[in-house]
Amino acid sequence: MLVVPSVLDAVTVHADGALCTRVATLSPENGRWPTQVRIQGLPPGLTPGSLRASLLQGPPGLTVRDIRTGFDVQLPPEVDLPAEHRALEEAQEALARLTTETEQVQKEFEALRKLGPSFLKPKAGEAPREASPTAVLALGAFLDTELAALHVRKLELERRQRDAWAEVELRRRRIQEGSSAVRGQRAVLYRAATLTLSELGSVEGTARLALEYAVKGARWLPGYELRMPRSLDGGTLRMRASLLQHTGEDWTGVKLSLSTAELHRRADVPELKALRIGRRQPPPARSGWREPPPGLDELFAGYDAASSRAPLPPPPPKAQAKPEPPSVSAPPPAPRPGSSRSTGAFPVVSAPPPPPAAAPMRSMARGGGESLRKKRVAKEVMAEPEAPAEMDDALMDMSEEESSLGGFGGAALQQDEAEPLAGLELGGGLLDYGALELGAADQPSRRGKLQPQPTHTQELLALTALHIQVDIAALLLVRQRSGEAGALPPPPPWTVPPRESSPHFDYRYDVEARMDVPSDGHWHTVSVFSAPVGLTAEYLCVPSVEPRVFRSVKVENRTPHALLAGPVDVTLGDEFLMSSPLPTLAPGATQRLGLGVEESLKVSRNTRFDEASGGVFGGATVLTHRVSLEVANRLGRPVTVELRERVPVVPPGEKDIKVEEAEVKPPWRAPTPLPGEVPVEGERAWRVTLQPGEKQTLDASWNVKIPSSKMLQGGNRRT
């Protein structure tokens, strides 16, 4: 089997995962094309039923006939360890050396401190001995000199020891904060794909294969960047995206696309049923299904006769499994075909052998064509004796998870291989030909018939043959973390998930340039494309609510894409202004984006209220309201300001109240709300243009007539 190197070429990030595409180049060997190729290095979080293979370029007649998933173990030599791991080991060695030197200096320091002149107490009746002052002073000077030198050396070693501790912690944090794709043990477990190609003769040239698979643990959120000059006349809007992925595989130099669709949603063509009027008839037979031909068992008579005369296979090597201890109990009953039980250190699956496409993979994993060094390292990475129970649990969790997925776009009907299928009921699973397989010749109840393919059986066989128990926990942790939203870092402020802002349509955004996104579980910002939009600056004020003037800009979407809701970072000139939420903009739609308060525009509001009698006989009360606004421009450029007031509105069915607009200078108008804005009844707006340093006064008055015997609820004053 030929192992073909591949590179990750394109990634489409969905709302709940990612679809990755790898490209491999295949060349003929000795003038002939291989019938089986193997692509290794796939991420461990790969969804088992999502593999798709296609031919991008190649000679005529070359097709991909089958694809199967498995596992691959990479055992890098010592010189291929990551640089951070080697730096950590060197820092730990330096710390240990400095710690030993510090302890030795401390012992010398304590020993010197114990030195000093000692004076013996004379016995009774004896004269005291004479002591030389010169010797005592010389000893004291010697101790002072040596202790001072040791103290200086001790301080230097303690300083270097603290620096070594800091270096070790730095290396550890770099490994912890690094990518999960390069973090791991020295024996790393990956996924692998085995492709079966059509047989060709001697053909020249090369072929390019594309392998597509789905992974969990990837999300994206839309965002924007708005750059405008300080005069607010024009600007550019650029769409960005916040990406997070912890799939166990770094995306380096990939063609990135962002999709709002759900990755694991079925996309089958709906079947429209006809409604007939008349006598009831039996439902027509569904097309695409044919019963097995008669005499199917006679086709395998020669195979059965040859199998009965075949010699028994040789026993497996001793390094493959640990022998069971002798037992005095009765031997266990023979398992049924397809059942599984655990013996020794590894579970032994008593299932039929895999088809020819998977046999070379298993033989290679058992040691065929492998070096003695790889076998030796494989024995060293085996877990402790209690690992088989953990591996059984891991295999059980994996099989349950893969069976619950039902296959990516495959048959949702997953049946136990241990139970022979006596009768098949025609359903949607048996019409999904991509998820069916032809039974092997040594399966009497299945051979010659299409059956739903169990997605986990071959992978459990391959995993058992690999004898790897160290990285199974890491594999399951990566797959489990991909579905845990609570372990993810918080998203950026004002962000909205794509499925919430676009629940009724699916769209894909293509990033302009190739991008790098590490698999570290943190948010990364990438630039998507520059959106041509129309930007119209506005200054808006509602003096009756707030006398300050607010800046805003009308954003018109002139792109063929829908701009999803998300945060927009506004930059005026060279200074960052603020972050504001942008609503969803359909193509051609317009929305208003607030930019904060403009302190250089001042507005003051004065009101006056008069109440008088009116009508022919004085049976009515006239309430006159006068509003005067004064607006001043202290900017160095002309601006257009919109000021809004609200005139009282008569409730429907009320005939005793009348509202009349009296004098308005300059004239105002009823504003037109933008799509998505709630219209306000009785709202009026002035639009005035002010030159630098100019002031203008706006006046308006209206009359409210009510019966003299009544009063407005809350008071007649309405300004």
Automatic annotation (TrEMBL):
Listed Pro residues bias regions: 281-295, 311-336
Lineage top rank: taxon: Bacteria
Coiled-coil regions listed in the entry: 81-115
Q: Which residues form the DUF4139 domain?
A: 209-707
Q: Which residues form the DUF4140 domain?
A: 11-112
Any Pfam family: DUF4140
| Record's keyword terms, sorted | Coiled coil
Region Disordered, as annotated, extends over 274-390
Q: What is this protein called?
A: Aspartate ammonia-lyase
Q: What is the lineage of its organism?
A: Bacteria, Pseudomonadati, Myxococcota, Myxococcia, Myxococcales
